Amino acid sequence: MNTTGKLIAFSFVTLLASCSGGNKWHLDGKISGLDKDDIVVLEGNNQGYWYPMDTLKVSSDGSYSYSREAQGYPDIYRLRVGEKSVYFPIDSIESVTLSAAAPDIDAHYTLAGSPQAENLVRVDSMLLAVAAKSGSAAVSTDAELKRELGRMIIADPAGIVTYYIINKSFAGKPLFNPAEKSDLRIIGAVANAFNERRPEDPRSGYLRRLYLGNRPKSPQSVDGEVPVANEVRAFDIKLFDNTGKEHSLLEETSKGKVVLLNFTAYTAEESPAFNVALNKVYEKYHSQGLEIFQVAFDADEYAWKQTAKNLPWITVLNGPTDGDKALRDYNVGSLPAIFIFDRNGDVVERVSDISTLDSSVSRRL
């Protein structure tokens, strides 16, 4: 089955946290190959500085189980053995499994248990692949790698893995260097997203200071102001509606409106109910500046047109011959998927729960 076919397995993702573990996150796994004197250290991060938080009790076969009180906001932690470390994200009160083989635990490990964990593994795998192919020094300047990381940032600009990417160094060089103008723009956009979605998170203040501390001074600058211009240019989508008119996503996001980008499939069983929910939000906020740019992944063009002609918003068809570039650009792995662009054309949120869409849109208007 092709990628589009797989994605048409339409799914509403509901993230449920078990109440049985209380307000704690859990980490377990196995670290093989440890020497008798090896200590497994859990470390936290404070604005780039890693500090020890605890040591893990490891059984004779290397297995361990650990839990800790959740702190109210997502964070990145790491396990360290000697000079080697493995990083893992904690979003809330989930359970994560981390197994590794000493002594080189940073090169031989598995991490699972949450979407954030899987994305962090993906980031590290991409870095190691470039290093193996072109050398460690080339990682921070590899154009294709930066594009892939940019897609992940756009998909979740206020996510903890995005924070990890922004602050990640490889071979002593930052992946996103605040001294580079293009990288600083991306840092500014991430700072913007964190300020809007996570105002109480201490990382928001850190990102803000990181941006402002490296921003060139200009007569128009206002001290303490984080930019709201197009810091990260979204990937454009140019497709045709049911009348044959071409629409451009970037053109719509440049009109000063709040734009909701939706990837969907009209042939999916849940599609009618999903569009009803969209329509409620559209009718409520369209007069205040909301536009919907809906991309349908359907093989039957005639059936798509019968639905599209009755919808009040922009709906375009991404048919089989159009490929899946749009899905790859926005790091979409299942349908439906919703992104919100603010009035400045920035991707500011990825909505995973349709029930929160109304409040997410209203905050931008």
From TrEMBL:
PROSITE patterns: PROKAR_LIPOPROTEIN, THIOREDOXIN_2. InterPro entries: Thioredoxin-like_fold (IPR012336), Thioredoxin-like_sf (IPR036249), Thioredoxin_domain (IPR013766), Thioredoxin_ResA/DsbE_sf (IPR050553). It comes from the Bacteria. Residues 228-365 form the Thioredoxin domain. This is AhpC/TSA family protein. It comes from Duncaniella dubosii.
